[in-house]
User: Fold this.
Amino acid sequence: MKMKYLLKYTFSFVLLGFLVACDEGSNNSKDFDVIISNGTLYDGLGNDPVNSDIGIIGDSIAQIGDLGDFSSSKYIDATDMVVAPGFINMLSWATQPLLIDGRALSDIKQGVTLEIMGEGSSMGPLNDSMKIRMKEQQSNIKYDITWTTLNEYLERIVSQGVSVNVASYIGASTVRIHEIGYENRKPTSAELIRMQNLVEEAMLDGAMGVGSSLIYTPGTFADTDELIALVRIAAKHNGAYISHLRSEANHLEEAVLELIKIASITGAPAEIYHLKAAGKNNWHKLENVFNLIELARDSGLRISADMYTYPAAATGLDATMPPWVQEGGHEAWVKRLQLPSVREKIAKEMLNANSEWENFFMQAGPEGILLTGFKNPDLRKYTGKTLQEVSEIIGISPQLAAMDLVVEDDSRVDAVFFLMSEENVTKQIKKPWMSFGSDAGAIANEGVFLEKSLHPRAYGNFARVIGKYVRDEQAITMKEAIRRLTSLPAKNIGIQDRGSIQLNNYADIIIFDPEEVNDKATFKKPHQYAVGMKHVFVNGKQVLKDGEHTGAMPGQVVRGPGWRGWNDQYNQ
Assistant:
């Protein structure tokens, strides 16, 4: 609880009672900045809904109950509407989009009020060579790099104006690049200590913990002991571990066991990013994964997962090629792809369905890889085509086509991979320890964002939970869906004062029509906003009014429990 607000509101309501007693007819001042009335209130904690009003003062919830006798500068009539805490995006790639457009429209229009970043890579800490590389690899989104630490990046986002709250893990790959670069080797003792020091500083600045992404280079070069060493530092500061597993396909169970081992040894809560069983031959493994997670939870470990609500993933063509060819970074990868002897070797390995590395070429098949994003304008004619279709147009094998596209675009080339089953998606949604993340940016359907196609999850992931899986398919109840979009992720990463509608919590509040909420984005036409979200408040300020953005930018940096300023803000 925020002590300053506890004192503030205790005083406010004592004073309010006195004023009412002295002059009931006075209307010179307002009791609340905002009153939301007549709504069906879901508190986010999984309790049954109640018909109740909410009074907001400043950035916080000041009163819950019948406020018919009170006055306000702004009334919101929520009759026949659901009133809920703002949704938390557990896996956001809003890192770059928010630098050029702080409105976060694709997420705000779904009720997201907090973006949590840091899947393996984070926007700091950076050294000079990392800044140069980041600048060189920019595509349609251009920005200046004026920060060095992760905290400085988050502060920049807020200082220039953002509609959502922002938070981040520190990326294990980012720390590795900072000290080792893109080499495939263990860190020396001195390097590992420096990596730990970087994690420590980020935790003191408010990072949520350590995030890893273990199928991409150089993250894949980190062994379990290295990850344990980093996560120990996060755990010391009450932080968490979150991971894109080392395998989501052929070695899925082993990868889950690695995460459980790290949690067991370090004591940190651990979460699996975008849980899935990738590739038809691996779909049956999901039940084994459920058993592993639930056994670990029953033993007292804090293991959880998040997901997106589609049967397709989205990543780059780097996920179709072996890690060894990518050692040394992007430039070294592109150079190798132009050597005939190397190309022949890669093409052969890409056809190995039993490879030790995460081979999305075989798991999806070239006909199941939809190309969505190019830097090179000359290649954008292939947007919306499958890798198989492009290979036939060019007249070469799909493996060689993938290599040529990476070389010609000088990028990893964005793509959608059809990997999962709808049945498994529904099974995951029913798990009580499952929260949700878009694994996408918070963007707008205008300007530079239209230069690339993308996965529809950027526009529809959260609306789809409510519209498809609650209302239409009744896979879970509304109160359970809202709990897992709000208080569950907040609890998992140790956030206080957000994720539930309670007195003195920050007023991150959404109001939506449960009959109208729906995702509109499709794989063929992804740049379409979700519908049904009527009003969104972030820190007490209205960001969405009648479905349209107000221009307000009240977002704040949300910091984890290791933050050096934690004790000053919270009453512990």
Q: What stands out?
A: Residues 3-22 form the longest helix (20 residues). Confidence is low (pLDDT under 50) at residues 3-28. The first strand starts at residue 32 and ends at 41. The two ends are 8 Å apart (CA to CA).
